[in-house]
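re: ur question from earlier - yeah i can do the single chain one, its not a big deal. heres the input i used so u can compare w yours
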Amino acid sequence: MLCQVCKKKESTIIITQVVGGEKTELHLCKDCAALFGDKLSIVSFSQFNLDDLLSGLLKAFDLYGKEEGMVQSKDLKCSNCSLTYQDFIQTGKLGCSLCYRDFRRQLIPLLRRLHGNSEHIGKIPHQAKNKLDKINQIKKLRKELQEVVIKEDYERAARIRDEILKLEGVLKKNNAR
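and the output i got, formated as tokens:
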């Protein structure tokens, strides 16, 4: 299996973490594992710090990302909290919610490498599921509306428009509560 960090060399080190019965594995080559220093040694593994692991991964992605066209700017800074991208790489922590927007180009490839996707596809809180379903249905209907208007099927477009307005009204009513 290839290293999950550099995606180039054969992995020789496997880190396994079991939390709440869920097993997660990280496959690393010798060089990428060396980026973590002694954090992966058996002695210090009991005092293992997730922040240190993330920081090491960020440094590795920064090194290998340059080869894959991922542009890193030393001057990149959050418009709200002034956290620099280099500070984020060092700590593994973002400063505020706007950091996600300002570092979006750098975070998307990182999230894809770490999680396999850059969009949340996991569990949704029960209270939010109904609202999210309606929002997704509205998005789908808007896309369908554009296609129908292009085909000049105005009667169907009017029905879709009415359905969108109805769903938006339900959302507004639920938000007012």
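The first strand starts at residue 13 and ends at 19. not sure if urs matches, ping me
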